[in-house]
Amino acid sequence: MKLDTSGLQSFVPLSAPIDDLCPDLSAPPTFDLPRSADFDGFQKDAIQMVKPAKGTTTLAFIFKEGVIVAADSRASMGGYISSQTVKKIIEINPYMIGTMAGGAADCQFWHRNLGIKCRLHELANKRRISVAGASKLLANILYSYRGMGLSVGTMIAGWDETGAGLYYVDSEGGRLKGTRFSVGSGSPYAYGVLDNGYRYDMSIEEAAELARRAIYHATFRDAASGGVASVYYVGPSGWKKLSGDDVGELHFRYYPVAPNPTEQEMAEVSPA
Amino acid sequence: MARYDRAITVFSPDGHLFQVEYALEAVRKGNAAVGVRGTDAIVLGVEKKATPKLQDSRSVRKIVSLDNHIALACAGLKADARVLINRARIECQSHRLTVEDPVTVEYITRYIAGLQQKFTQSGGVRPFGLSTLIIGFDPYTGVPALYQTDPSGTFSAWKANATGRNSNSMREFLEKNYKETSGQETVKLAIRALLEVVESGGKNIEIAVMTRETGLRQLDEAEIDAIVAEIEAEKAAAEAAKKAPSKET
């Protein structure tokens, strides 16, 4: 299949009747379809191939000071842990970051592509693109590839003229605005801790600690999550990485091993 | 020379694109249009040729809105204008949809100019025979803006400009008399510029005012007549003042 690069151009729907006079100017983008007898089955297989790969835990939430974004760093292929050091928080530009869940290649490529589009928007319009706009661009691209096997479950977090922005965008073409999201196989566990401890008016340190704990607890219970819990903060002056802690060390920090109280000390018995 | 003016895509030896220049001629034959930027209002004015008695004048609006905060007036081939305006309106909505933001005046001007340029560099098409005056307020900063495009596809921002018939005299007048104005003063300046080249009276002038809060408002004939009367009174007073000191010497 040839890659449809129309996603790299801006969407301008030109109505066909007006263009009858100038056929050169508006050729609609086309691509080849695979020659298989059962195209629907092919699509299903493509989706199945990437389905297990959303093994991860990522979360993000908005609070008084801005946005906190956190993720684990484990990549798994079925039962095999292929890496413990994956960067799942992708820097789109100095004031916007995205999380990776699903196909690593898909997320990395499309986030970089989004970074390009954001920069072009800045250059053309002499002002930064809003988080709403950036997430909309990504969502439109992913929607145009709907059903073709892309696997992306990402959160776009950033700071723009209207303040903190957080959007969830996925490869089904969905886009949601919200204040608390967690994505991945470990998300139910993360939500448990996050929803329990969330308050809007936290300090940056409190919020970071909440995110760290939520990721840790998800890695504790979910086999497909682990490695290093990274925590980022996005505020008026852009994003900043706050911490990256190995979850094994976090475990003993939260649950230190108590020395066993000895019941009886074996006293030296003097040879009678 | 004649050989280089048929096809749009052919340069002449001395670097002219004749079709584009002929398009500019078409603009010079179109009705006069003027735009003036004030601090809180922007005014567009267009010359209205005498309407035939049986024509419904409301169907010949020459100043149109592209979005809630952008308006356009043009001089030249009106049929071409319709095509350009429709495309610009679609682009305004498309921009709102893809980036969840209204367009800035500069963006939509760039789009229209880009469209006009595309038609100077393709086979089998001719350029749009019109120049546009585009006004609007920036949706976030609220700064007023006035832009002009022409058939070659160039655009620039202006404090005040005129296009169409006798645009040179109007522009000269504006250069001599322009100063930062607001509200009604901006409207008066625009009408005074138009009156330099157009017969006086409300039925020969169409005026629209755009403000940040209320958007585009077309002035009706009675209002224009009232302002024209004010202007004539001021002119007469100025004439009288000029004659008075010379009497004393």
TrEMBL record, chain A:
Top-level taxon of the source organism: Eukaryota
Catalytic residues as annotated in Swiss-Prot or TrEMBL: 56
Keyword Cytoplasm: yes
Catalytic activity field: Cleavage of peptide bonds with very broad specificity
Keyword Coiled coil: no
InterPro entries (UniProt xref): Ntn_hydrolases_N, Pept_T1A_subB, Proteasome_bsu_CS, Proteasome_sua/b, Proteasome_suB-type
One term of GO molecular function: threonine-type endopeptidase activity
Subcellular location: Cytoplasm; Nucleus
Principal subcellular localization: cytoplasm
GO biological processes: proteolysis involved in protein catabolic process
A single GO cellular-component term on record: proteasome core complex
PANTHER family in UniProt: METALLOPROTEASE TLDD, PROTEASOME SUBUNIT BETA
Record's subunit section: Component of the proteasome complex.
UniProt family annotation: Belongs to the peptidase T1B family.
Protein name: Proteasome subunit beta
Protein species of origin: Elaeis guineensis var. tenera (Oil palm)
Automatic annotation (TrEMBL), chain B:
Recorded family membership: Belongs to the peptidase T1A family.
Annotated function: The proteasome is a multicatalytic proteinase complex which is characterized by its ability to cleave peptides with Arg, Phe, Tyr, Leu, and Glu adjacent to the leaving group at neutral or slightly basic pH. The proteasome has an ATP-dependent proteolytic activity.
Positions of the Proteasome alpha-type subunits domain: 4-26
Subcellular location: Cytoplasm; Nucleus
PROSITE patterns: PROTEASOME_ALPHA_1, PROTEASOME_ALPHA_2
Gene Ontology biological process terms in this record: ubiquitin-dependent protein catabolic process
Gene3D superfamilies with a match to the protein in the record: Glutamine Phosphoribosylpyrophosphate, subunit 1, domain 1
Domain of life of the organism encoding this protein: Eukaryota
CDD domains: proteasome_alpha_type_7
Subunit: The 20S proteasome core is composed of 28 subunits that are arranged in four stacked rings, resulting in a barrel-shaped structure. The two end rings are each formed by seven alpha subunits, and the two central rings are each formed by seven beta subunits. The 26S proteasome consists of a 20S proteasome core and two 19S regulatory subunits. The 20S proteasome core is composed of 28 subunits that are arranged in four stacked rings, resulting in a barrel-shaped structure. The two end rings are each formed by seven alpha subunits, and the two central rings are each formed by seven beta subunits. The catalytic chamber with the active sites is on the inside of the barrel.
Cellular component GO terms, alphabetical: cytoplasm; nucleus; proteasome core complex, alpha-subunit complex
Keyword Cytoplasm belongs to the record: yes
Full protein name: Proteasome subunit alpha type
Pfam families hit by this protein: Proteasome, Proteasome_A_N
UniProt KW Transport keyword: no
Keywords: Cytoplasm, Nucleus, Proteasome
This protein's encoding gene: LOC105055087
